User: Fold this.
Amino acid sequence: MFTVHYYNRNGEQLLDITKILPEDAKFFQENNIKVSMEELNGEIIVYGCPYSDTSDESEVIVFAGGNTCEYTMSELVSECKAKFGVQ
Assistant:
């Protein structure tokens, strides 16, 4: 299980997800990456950024586009590795 920050019109909620590969959850935890998600116009969008810099400029964004949660989180890991230079 992995906790993400979920944003909707009622504000922020913590949401536990189980559809994430263990190595992806470990990557986010070990690299102190905050994972957030929201739904806009029916589209699920996930964001990753270091807890030390949660500004919009530091965010990595992945659109789920109908893909599974596991696939989307793996894509977010790849994008975070590329942007933040972490493995």
